[in-house]
């Protein structure tokens, strides 16, 4: 498995986004970290190496966050793991890349109103056909991962009313949110080709569905969670995703048919998970019935129990999920901190500290 983490660069005093990703990336390169420039100039992305267990992944993520934070400090910034800018203007300049300029030209304010950060988890699979079938098997569980991984309740200084506001903003792109069901690799590729040929997308990289076959790696990529406030929470989400893919591959090998979930049902469940997170009801896409978010997570743990046992991770993951339910995830922490202190600047400063926790 591997993890991509997107971060914000902010002013240490005001909490406002700073448009210095190119300078921070240059400094990070001197420290041995290859940063990717994201669409907005206030964003950078790290990429972990291929990891085979949670302990190794945790070590790599801690090191990357530490080094990138140091590079940010050298350029007058702080690194913050938040799904959306906690404070910031409605529009931000895009990074100096030809592809990003083309995106801004074609998609207008969608490009300059970006500045949102996710946690993208890659899991190795045998081939692209398997990746398509894994997506079909995993898609009913995406709302549960969104509820658990929400970390964007505060946006532009106010409580958005959503646990995962990033998901709502992200859904405005042409191919974002929960994916359709695809019968085969050919079905998937013909749909993507139609979107590109019609001008709906620039290229396959703009397939922004919550789960997708990677366009450049032999992996399934799950993109539904916000960037996580701490490394341990990122490892938790990555381990659950890995277990979901392992469980899906077993089902495919047995010849089990994937759940035939209508896209509109999955969209409804995703929207509700984005709004209520861990503190409300979700929709069970398989039964179309309301279910408390903690119960959905119990169902998820039961679904992947054998895979987590094989990884030797069940007890740790079960304990961490229970801790998140009891004490709250990033979204709940953001909201509670803003209510308790009523100062968004201080919230940004505390979030920067949490980014390096561990």
TrEMBL record:
Signal peptide: none annotated. Its EC number is 6.3.2.2. One of its GO terms (molecular function) is ligase activity. Keywords: ATP-binding, Ligase, Nucleotide-binding. It holds the Pfam family GCS2. It comes from the Bacteria. InterPro entries: GCL_type2/YbdK_subfam, GCS2, Gln_synth/guanido_kin_cat_dom, YbdK. SUPFAM superfamilies: Glutamine synthetase/guanido kinase. It is an enzyme of class 6 (ligase). It catalyses: L-cysteine + L-glutamate + ATP = gamma-L-glutamyl-L-cysteine + ADP + phosphate + H(+). NCBIfam families: gshA_cyan_rel, PRK13517.1-1. Belongs to the glutamate--cysteine ligase type 2 family. YbdK subfamily. ATP-dependent carboxylate-amine ligase which exhibits weak glutamate--cysteine ligase activity. This is Putative glutamate--cysteine ligase 2.
């Amino acid at each position: 498995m591997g993890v991509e983490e997107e971060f914000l660069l902010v002013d240490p005093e005001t909490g406002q986004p700073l448009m210095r990703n190119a300078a921070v990336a240059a400094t990070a390169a001197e420290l041995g970290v290859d940063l990717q420039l994201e669409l907005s100039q206030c964003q950078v992305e790290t990429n972990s190496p291929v990891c085979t267990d949670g302990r190794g992944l945790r070590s790599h993520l801690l090191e990357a966050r530490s080094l990138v934070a140091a590079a940010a400090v050298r350029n007058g910034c702080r690194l913050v793991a938040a799904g959306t800018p906690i404070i910031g203007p409605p529009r931000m300049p895009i990074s100096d890349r030809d592809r990003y300029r083309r995106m801004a030209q074609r998609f207008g304010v969608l490009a300059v109103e970006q500045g949102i950060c996710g946690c993208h988890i890659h899991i190795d699979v045998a081939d692209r056909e398997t990746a398509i079938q894994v997506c079909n098997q995993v898609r009913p569980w995406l709302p549960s991962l969104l509820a658990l991984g929400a970390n964007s309740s505060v946006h532009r200084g106010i409580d958005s009313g959503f646990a995962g506001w990033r998901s709502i903003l992200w859904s405005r792109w042409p191919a974002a949110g929960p994916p359709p069901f695809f019968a085969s690799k050919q079905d998937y590729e013909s749909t993507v080709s139609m979107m590109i040929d019609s001008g709906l997308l620039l290229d396959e990289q703009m397939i922004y569905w919550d789960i997708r076959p990677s366009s450049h790696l032999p992996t399934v990529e799950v993109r539904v969670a916000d960037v996580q406030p701490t490394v341990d929470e990122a490892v938790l989400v990555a381990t659950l995703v890995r277990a979901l893919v392992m469980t899906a591959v077993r089902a495919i090998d047995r010849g089990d048919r994937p759940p035939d979930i209508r896209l509109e049902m999955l969209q409804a469940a995703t929207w509700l998970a984005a709004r209520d997170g861990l503190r409300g009801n979700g929709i069970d896409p398989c039964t179309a019935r309301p279910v408390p978010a903690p119960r959905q997570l119990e169902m998820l743990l039961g679904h992947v129990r054998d895979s987590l046992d094989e990884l030797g991770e069940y007890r740790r993951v079960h304990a961490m999920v229970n801790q998140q339910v009891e004490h709250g995830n990033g979204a709940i922490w953001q909201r509670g901190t803003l209510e308790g202190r009523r100062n968004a600047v201080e919230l940004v400063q505390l979030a920067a500290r949490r980014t390096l926790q561990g």
